[in-house]
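sorry for the late reply, my laptop died twice this morning and i had to redo everyting from scratch. anyway the thing you sent over, i finally got around to it. pasting the sequence first so we're on the same page, its 581 residues, then the predicted structure underneath. double check i copied it right bc i was rushing
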Amino acid sequence: MIKHDSIRLLATKKILQALGKLNLQATEEEIYKALVEPPQSDMGDLAFGCFLLAKALKKAPPAISGEIAAALEIDAHLIKAQAAGPYLNLTFSPAIIGELVLNDILSGQFFKKELVSKSPKTMIEYSQPNTHKELHVGHMRNLCLGDSIVRMLRYAGREIVSSTFPGDMGTHVAKCLWYMKKHNQEPVPETGKGEWLGRMYSKAHLLLEDQNGTPQEEVNRQELTAILHQLEGKTGPYYDLWLETRQWSIDLMKKIYDWAGVHFDEWYFESEMDSPSVAWVKQLYAEGKLEKSEGAIGKNLEEEKLGFCLLLKSDGTGLYATKDLLLAKHKFEDVKIEKSVYIVDMRQALHFKQVFRVLEMLGFEQAKNCFHLQYNYVELPDGAMSSRKGNIVPLSALVHNMQEHVKTNYLQRYKDEWSAQEIESTAEQVAKGAIFYGMLRMDTNKKIIFDMDEWLKLDGESGPFVQYSHARIASLGRKFPRTSNKPQWNLLTHASERQLMQAMFGFNTSLAQAAENFKPAAICTYLYELAKKFNVFYHECPIGTEKDENIREARLALSAAVGKTLKEGLAVLGIPAPEKM
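ok and here's the structure:
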């Protein structure tokens, strides 16, 4: 554990001194870890729980907190110490918070601190879209969640490898190609080929459903099987069409990733794992490490209530589990990672339990370092989305509609002041903020109901609200440029000023905890609360009309520190911070 928080370190030092006077013992690390934020900001900046001393002293924690409070030295730094039940509440001077925290925020040094000690090299695998399907709003939860976790862990100082595993093989691909060759009458468009492919897949699925129960059903099944064999054999007209159309889908993925600011260190494809994984499973079966059931090969996990992990169907084709087994080996052996995290929705929980258990039974030592981070899915107000049925909100359409909404409702008033490029750029940033924040603000175990109007509000818990608060601070800085690099922080004594300072010195601690627990929602909450506190301060503490120049300068510096913290926090979530809105 790295003790990175300057105010917590100062509190730890003060408490250690007091304990020394009382002939009590505790380590620096124990005290540092026991420090928490009081439930109300007016109770103090930090609270020390005296529970860890109670057993050794055989005294109740409230009695101990009173003794420590009496032994503490109150000085220019620590201005108040008060026992509150089992807790000791500490309040520090604005001057010391300014010196130890706000100055570092303004210089940028605060955001460069290492927050964790040496940790395992970890791969985060996320965004596993299928080729030959259209990317839609439901895919964004995985993309936003994975990207924010990668960013948070890297901010904290962890060595992270990001990866994606698109599904470019399987029945969905065969259906799309089958429809294109046999039933499609439309010309292939010049642009938007990836999106068009998704529509072909949806039409294929609906046609196949219509023909179920008719003599044509068996013909269709045979044709789809023949297409899959061509793809597996890497030969024939369908394989050639697959190569061409697969690239259209990959181009669409990369276009979306560029828009989202997402970069992957490693790209894996199902097609790369397909034949080698089947061969490996056959080898494992020959070695007696797997078993047969009704002509299929796999591993019986019934005793562990995990069913039968199917790895090779009776017709000799592999499944998702087959590919994931081999991919796990590749990740650890090729990239030399020490931990592997899979971000996949909760419907795949059994799949990963089976895969990890089979790896363990096969003697793969790193199986214990594989972790499935599951999340709930995204629905529309009227129910679940389905690419097969075509009731989706395509991502490209969503982004376009959001940007048009922002331009029409928020930026229209600036058309005579801003350039067309500025309006376009800001609309894109605000739309992205709305989508990313909307996808991240809910805990991973909760379902998300997508509502574009709610997500774009400027006066609620939304990305645009936090972005607008940052833009307001940027505007303040342009209107009233600071004239001093040495603010008199001791002048910031108003309650709303103190609340802002308290919130900011806790940024790195909040982020380290959120990263360790894979909880970007906690950072959303932190930024929303900080933005709300700034808006209270903005209304209660005048800046432009403040006659005392030193107070005005200190408030401008405080505002600038909030702006930098909001910008850094948004960046950790993958959200841009517009300079004006």
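The chain has three domains: 6-92, 122-384, 395-572.
thats about all i looked at so far, will dig more tmrw
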